[in-house]
């Protein structure tokens, strides 16, 4: 293994987790509710935040499979990763300009930033198969998420100090929060540099074609993948399971903070609890990587999803900041492990020769599902007049996901993907 390339790949998780932590989970949801959505009632601002997340993910669903297929055909994973990283950095920089009542501007920038964040992750994930041998993927994938927790957690702690002690820096709280958004953009860009310098994708003979031809070829490849995915029954079962449980996980990440604002938990408690989540997640993500190497990845993943189901049930009854702290610790315990193990299991089930294309489908499956979760959360909340019913609705996603995942035979799935690679070589 190329240790420098692996460390550089891991550092990208450190870089972009600042966006996931501060924009998607911790600071922006509070800012959206209290500043950008100042003239909206709390349930409406929560719903609008959910719709914003759903729309951004809908765009990811439309673009990522085609982009992945094109990237495979032109050895272009790194170029697409760089493009989406720059786009995300620019969108996050513009969040510095969001002011009171500008919920629509905030939504547009979050949609653009989340599109870029998710698009970049499609190509970042696809490098795992290029640079890490199969027997090391659980460990390296878990290390990536652990570094993400560290990086996101450090910047969140710094930004929490900036916001909490804004008077010391001669800022208003709004100005301090706007500067926090700017720090995310800088952090994301600076710590992405090692990957762009040291990680190389496996080269294949490029296919020279015009942008129009590449797009047509990409669309054709996606259609071909949709038709051929039935040849990988275990992969298909895993994708369906992932569709459900990933929806539940993503909705918790994106809606927990604004839900806490709605039920009256203060900003300091909300951000501090999410900071705890980050640092609980560091050792626990590594721990689950080691457990999976001894206990196998699938049963370990199922265990983390059962914990999530318990979190959702307890979240319905949450009323105080102490409750939020306890649930944040539980989320930190399983969040990184569940995501890392999902990624490593999936990497075993796909044909190696088409990994960027199939990782786009991985992104597609999760993001398509994630369109539904925040939207259901918002719709149920508006319908019932409270978001408690919205949080309870997530239990169904985890129950179905667990049942479907239990039916996946990973060993058989590996054989199916290996057979596909062999037939590809024969052809």
From TrEMBL:
GO cellular component, one term: plasma membrane
Pfam families tied to this protein: ATG22
UniProt membrane topology term: Multi-pass membrane protein
Transmembrane segments: 12-32, 48-68, 80-98, 104-124, 145-165, 177-196, 235-258, 270-288, 300-318, 324-346, 358-383, 389-406
Segments forming domain Major facilitator superfamily (MFS) profile: 1-412
Localisation: Cell membrane
Cross-referenced InterPro entries: Atg22-like (IPR024671), ATG22/LtaA_families (IPR050495), MFS_dom (IPR020846), MFS_trans_sf (IPR036259)
PROSITE patterns assigned: MFS
Coiled coil: none
Keywords, ordered alphabetically: Membrane, Transmembrane, Transmembrane helix, Transport
A GO molecular-function annotation: transmembrane transporter activity
PANTHER family linked: AUTOPHAGY-RELATED PROTEIN 22 (PTHR23519:SF1)
Listed name of the protein: MFS transporter
Organism: Thermoactinomyces mirandus
């Amino acid at each position: 293994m190329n240790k420098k390339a692996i460390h550089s790949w891991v550092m990208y998780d450190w870089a972009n987790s600042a966006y996931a932590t501060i924009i998607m989970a911790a600071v922006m949801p509070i800012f959206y509710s209290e500043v950008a959505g100042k003239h909206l009632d709390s349930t409406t601002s929560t719903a609008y935040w959910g719709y914003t997340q759903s729309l951004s993910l809908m765009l990811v669903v439309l673009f990522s499979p085609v982009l992945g297929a094109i990237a495979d055909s032109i050895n272009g994973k790194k170029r697409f990763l760089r493009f989406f990283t720059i786009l995300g950095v620019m969108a996050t920089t513009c969040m510095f300009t969001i002011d009171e009542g500008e919920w629509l501007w905030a939504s547009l920038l979050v949609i653009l930033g989340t599109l870029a964040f998710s698009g970049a992750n499609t190509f970042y994930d696809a490098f795992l198969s290029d640079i890490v041998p199969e027997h090391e993927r659980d460990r390296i994938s878990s290390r990536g998420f652990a570094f993400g927790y560290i990086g996101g957690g450090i910047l969140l702690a710094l930004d929490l100090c900036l916001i909490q002690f804004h008077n010391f820096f001669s800022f208003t709280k709004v100005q301090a929060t706007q500067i926090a958004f700017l720090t995310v953009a800088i952090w994301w860009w600076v710590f992405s540099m090692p990957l762009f310098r040291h990680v190389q994708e496996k080269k294949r003979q490029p296919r020279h074609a015009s942008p129009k031809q590449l797009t047509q070829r990409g669309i054709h490849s996606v259609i071909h993948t949709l038709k051929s995915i039935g040849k990988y029954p275990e992969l298909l079962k895993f994708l369906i399971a992932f569709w459900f449980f990933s929806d539940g996980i993503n909705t918790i990440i994106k809606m927990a903070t604004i839900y806490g604002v709605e039920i009256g938990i203060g900003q300091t408690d909300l951000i501090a609890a999410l900071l705890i989540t980050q640092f609980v997640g560091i050792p626990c993500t590594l721990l689950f990587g080691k457990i999976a190497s001894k206990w196998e990845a699938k049963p370990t993943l199922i265990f983390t999803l059962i914990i999530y189901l318990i979190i959702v049930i307890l979240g319905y009854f949450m009323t105080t900041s102490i409750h939020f702290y306890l649930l944040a610790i539980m989320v930190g315990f399983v969040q990184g492990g569940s995501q890392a193990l999902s990624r490593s299991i999936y990497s075993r089930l796909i044909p190696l020769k088409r990994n960027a294309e199939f990782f786009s489908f991985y992104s597609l499956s999760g993001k398509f599902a994630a369109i539904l979760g925040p939207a259901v959360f918002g719709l149920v909340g508006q319908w019932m007049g409270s978001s408690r019913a919205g949080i309870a609705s997530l239990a169904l996603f985890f129950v179905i996901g667990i049942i479907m995942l239990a039916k996946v035979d990973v060993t058989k799935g590996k054989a199916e993907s290996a057979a596909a690679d062999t037939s590809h070589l024969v052809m």
